[in-house]
C-alpha cells in the first residue's frame, strides 16, 4: 500500500510525521511477525496452513480498508461521504485500524512463505509451475495490477477496493490449490527442536550453573552424538559463560533439557549473539528503507508528474523501486557476503545523500514560486528528480536480501537458517519502526537551534536536513559494519 501515507495526509488530514509514523509502525510490524509465524509452523502448524491462514486474513483486512473510506458506509453510519476528516466516524476508524492489523498478519505470512522457498532453493520455472510459487506470482500480479488501476482512479474507495478484488481472486486460487494438494504435502517436523526454545534453554541452563567451573577440555562438555539425524557444530572460543549450559553434573538427568544443553545448542546461541552488532547495521538500513513509502512518496505527491504529454501516476516510483530490485537480483554477479553487506550500507548513505540534495532543490523551487503556505498547489519541478533515490533504494533492498541469504555458514541446517534469516530481516524492520522515534528525537534536537524540522506540512518542513542527518549516521554505520564484519566472518 504505497499510497497509505498520502491517504492519511490528504483525507484524514494528519500531519506529515503522524502519517509517516502510522505507516512505519504498520510496515515494520508486518515484517517482524514472520519470526512468530516460523515458530508457529514449527510447533503447531506446518508451513502451508500458516500461509493460507495469513492470506485469507490479508484479504479480509484489505476489504475492511476499502470499506473504511468515508463514501462506502456513509449512509449506514450517518456521516458525510466527502474525503474529509469530519466524514470519518468512529466506525470507519475502528475498521481502518483493524484492517491495518489484519493486513500486517497477511503480509508477514507471504514473507514467511517466500523465505521458506528461498532457503529451500525452489526455483520458479515458467514451464513447470509449482503451486506454491504460482500462488505467490498470482498475489504479486494481483497487487501490481490493482496498484496500476488504482493509481489513475481518484475515489479512495476504488483505490483500495480494486486491489481488494484482485486479492480475492488470488486468494480463491490459493485456496483451490491448497485443497487440491492437501493430501500430497508432507508434514515437516524438526527433530532438533525449535531454535527459539533451544536458545531459551541455553540461557536458563547457563544461569543455573553460573557458579560451576568450566572443564579445561571442551570435549568434556555434553553433546548427544547418538542422534545421527541431527546436525552438530564444533565448540568455539568466546562467550564461555554459555558453555556452562553443557556442563555435565553428577546425577544430572540428560532428559531435563532446561538444565543440560548440547554443545551444538550452545554454539547456535553464540552464533545469534555474535550477529547482534551486524544486526545493528541492518537496523539503519531498515530506517532508510522506511522513508521510501512515506517521505519520498509524499514529496512526489505535489511535484509535476508530466513526461511530455503523458501524466505519470505516482505509483510508478514504487514500481520502479520493485523493478530495480528484480533487475539487481538477476543481473548481479556472485560475491562474498562481506562485500554484499558493506555495499548495502554504502547504498543507504548514497540514497540519503541524493535525497537530501533533491529535497533542497525542491524547497528552493517552493520558495521561488511562493508556495510555502500552499501545500496543495503543484510544484513546478519534475517528479523524475526523485528517480535516482528510488533507484538506490531498490539497490539497497536487493543487496540486503542477497547478503542475508548467504550470510550464515553453510553447515547450519534450514531449520536453523530460517530463524537467522528472520532475525536479520527483523533487525531491518525494527529500523523501519524506529523511524518514528528518529523523527521525534531529531525534531526535538532541531528545536534547540530554532524551529522543529518537521512541521505540519511538507513545504514547511526541512526534510533535507533530516536526510543529511541520516547520511551522517550512515557513515558511522559503515565504520560499525567494518568492525562487525571482521569479528563475524
Automatic annotation (TrEMBL):
What is one GO cellular-component annotation here? membrane
Q: Which Gene3D superfamilies does this chain map to?
A: MFS general substrate transporter like domains
Pfam families, alphabetized: PTR2
Topology in the lipid bilayer is annotated as: Multi-pass membrane protein
Q: Where are the transmembrane segments?
A: 50-73, 94-113, 133-153, 160-180, 309-327, 339-358, 379-400, 420-445, 466-486
Q: Please state where this protein is localized.
A: Membrane
Give the highest taxon in the source lineage: Eukaryota
Q: Which UniProt keywords apply?
A: Membrane, Transmembrane, Transmembrane helix
Family, according to the entry, reads as follows: Belongs to the major facilitator superfamily. Phosphate:H(+) symporter (TC 2.A.1.9) family. Belongs to the major facilitator superfamily. Proton-dependent oligopeptide transporter (POT/PTR) (TC 2.A.17) family.
What is the name listed in the Swiss-Prot or TrEMBL entry for this protein? Protein NRT1/PTR FAMILY 5.5
Q: Which organism is it from?
A: Forsythia ovata
Amino acid at each position: 500500500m504505497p499510497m497509505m501515507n498520502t491517504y492519511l495526509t490528504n483525507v484524514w488530514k494528519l500531519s506529515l510525521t503522524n502519517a509517516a509514523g502510522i505507516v512505519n509502525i504498520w510496515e515494520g510490524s508486518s515484517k517482524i511477525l514472520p519470526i512468530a509465524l516460523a515458530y508457529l509452523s514449527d510447533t503447531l502448524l506446518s508451513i502451508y496452513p500458516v500461509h493460507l491462514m495469513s492470506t485469507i486474513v490479508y484479504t479480509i483486512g484489505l476489504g475492511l480498508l476499502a470499506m473504511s473510506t468515508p463514501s462506502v458506509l456513509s449512509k449506514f453510519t450517518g456521516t458525510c461521504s466527502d474525503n474529509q476528516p469530519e466524514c470519518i466516524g468512529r466506525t470507519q476508524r475502528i475498521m481502518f485500524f483493524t484492517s491495518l492489523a489484519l493486513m500486517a498478519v497477511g503480509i508477514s505470512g507471504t514473507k514467511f512463505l517466500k523465505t521458506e522457498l528461498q532457503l529451500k532453493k525452489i526455483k520458479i520455472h515458467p514451464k513447470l509451475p509449482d503451486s506454491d510459487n504460482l500462488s505467490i506470482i498470482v498475489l504479486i500480479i494481483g497487487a501490481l495490477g490493482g496498484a496500476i488501476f488504482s493509481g489513475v482512479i481518484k475515489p479512495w474507495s476504488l483505490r483500495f477496493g480494486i486491489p481488494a478484488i484482485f486479492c480475492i481472486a488470488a486468494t480463491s486460487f490459493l485456496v483451490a490449490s491448497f485443497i487440491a494438494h492437501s493430501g500430497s504435502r508432507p508434514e515437516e517436523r524438526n527433530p532438533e527442536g525449535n531454535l527459539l526454545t533451544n536458545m531459551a534453554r541455553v540461557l536458563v541452563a547457563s544461569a543455573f550453573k553460573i557458579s560451576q567451573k568450566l572443564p579445561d577440555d571442551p570435549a568434556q562438555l555434553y553433546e548427544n552424538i547418538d542422534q545421527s539425524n541431527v546436525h552438530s557444530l564444533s565448540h568455539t572460543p568466546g562467550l564461555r559463560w554459555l558453555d556452562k549450559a553443557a556442563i555435565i553434573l553428577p546425577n544430572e538427568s540428560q532428559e531435563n533439557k532446561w538444565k543440560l544443553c548440547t554443545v551444538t545448542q550452545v554454539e547456535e546461541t553464540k552464533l545469534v549473539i555474535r550477529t547482534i552488532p551486524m544486526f545493528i547495521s541492518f537496523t539503519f538500513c531498515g530506517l532508510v528503507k522506511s522513508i521510501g513509502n512515506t517521505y519520498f512518496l509524499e514529496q512526489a505527491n505535489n511535484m509535476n508528474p508530466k513526461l511530455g504529454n503523458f501524466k505519470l501516476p505516482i505509483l510508478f516510483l514504487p514500481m520502479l523501486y520493485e523493478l530495480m530490485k528484480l533487475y539487481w537480483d538477476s543481473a548481479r554477479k556472485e560475491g562474498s557476503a562481506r562485500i554484499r553487506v558493506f555495499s548495502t550500507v554504502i547504498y543507504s548513505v548514497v540514497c540519503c545523500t541524493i535525497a537530501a540534495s533533491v529535497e533542497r532543490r525542491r524547497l528552493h523551487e517552493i520558495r521561488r514560486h511562493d508556495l510555502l503556505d500552499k501545500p496543495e498547489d503543484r510544484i513546478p519541478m519534475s517528479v523524475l528528480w526523485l528517480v535516482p533515490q528510488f533507484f538506490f533504494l531498490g539497490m539497497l533492498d536487493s543487496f540486503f536480501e542477497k547478503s542475508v541469504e548467504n550470510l550464515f555458514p553453510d553447515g547450519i541446517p534450514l531449520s536453523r537458517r530460517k530463524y537467522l534469516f528472520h532475525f536479520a530481516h527483523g533487525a531491518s524492520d525494527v529500523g523501519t519502526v524506529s523511524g518514528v522515534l528518529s523523527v521525534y528525537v531529531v525534531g526535538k534536537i532541531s528545536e534547540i537551534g530554532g524551529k522543529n524540522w518537521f512541521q505540519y506540512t511538507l513545504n514547511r518542513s526541512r526534510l533535507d536536513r533530516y536526510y543529511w542527518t541520516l547520511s551522517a549516521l550512515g557513515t558511522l554505520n559503515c565504520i560499525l559494519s567494518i568492525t562487525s564484519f571482521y569479528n563475524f566472518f
